[in-house]
Amino acid sequence: MRAPIGDFDTATPVTDCLQELTAPVADAVRAWRGGVPADRVLYVETDPRWADTAVFVQHYGRDLLEQSANCVVVAGKRAGETTLAACVVLSTTRVDVNGVVRRQLGARKASFASMETATGETGMEYGGITPVGLPADWPLLIDSAVVDLPYVLVGSGRRRGKLLVPGKALTELPGAVVLEGLGVA
Predict the structure, then answer these.
(1) DSSP E strands, 33-156
(2) Which of 114, 150, 174, 182 gives a 20 to 30 Å CA spacing to 168?
(3) For each of the chain's 185 residues, which pLDDT tens digit applies?
(4) Which residues contact 54 (CB under 8 A, 6 or more apart)?
(5) CB 143 within 8 A of CB 131
(6) CB within 8 Å of 16: residues ≥ 6 apart
């Protein structure tokens, strides 16, 4: 099948390649519910050597720069309690951790989670964290510009491979909250 965005050799319905995913992502695909069927989410094989965004878009298509999103894990702290959350913003922006995220989590302080925390708590590889398959009790904060895309490129849970997800499907994931201004230039 031809990918709806990017220059990928093939795009496979994610339901047909669960073995390529980490356990939490594969489990989330198996349990998928919502208005967008799971087989509309596509898996594309990518080379981890080209993971850096600038090199990635040169290799897989310049159109991807405006159609890809980063998923990062943040930690909000208040009164000795830590709340982990994931944030999804366009790759051309950065997460407003000290503004939008801190306020949304009701935290006194917010920061990016350490690599060990992000990978340990998600069961995903660093550089491949995806909104699909995150812990169900986490807030999943999504910039409104991401959900407006017909398809958005996100991680697959591994450094090799990406998911092409209809933007609206992200709003149906556990804990999803769509926010204006989460991603800033």
Answers:
(1) 42-44, 69-78, 81-90, 94-95, 109-112, 140-143, 152-155
(2) 114
(3) 899 999 998 999 999 999 999 999 999 999 999 899 999 999 999 988 887 777 888 889 888 989 999 999 999 999 999 999 999 999 999 999 999 999 999 999 999 999 999 999 999 999 899 999 999 999 999 999 999 999 999 999 998 899 999 999 999 999 999 999 999 99
(4) none
(5) no
(6) 39
Coil vs helix vs strand at 54:
helix
Tokens of 184: 């800033």
Residue spans of alpha helices (H) in 15-113: 23-30, 53-60, 102-105
Q: Would you call 129 helix, strand, or coil by DSSP?
A: coil
Provide the residue type at 65 as one letter.
L
Look-up: residue for tokens 């989670």?
113
Cβ neighbours, 10 Å, residue 89? 24
Structure tokens at 35: 């208005």
> Which pair of tokens denotes residue 51?
């993971």
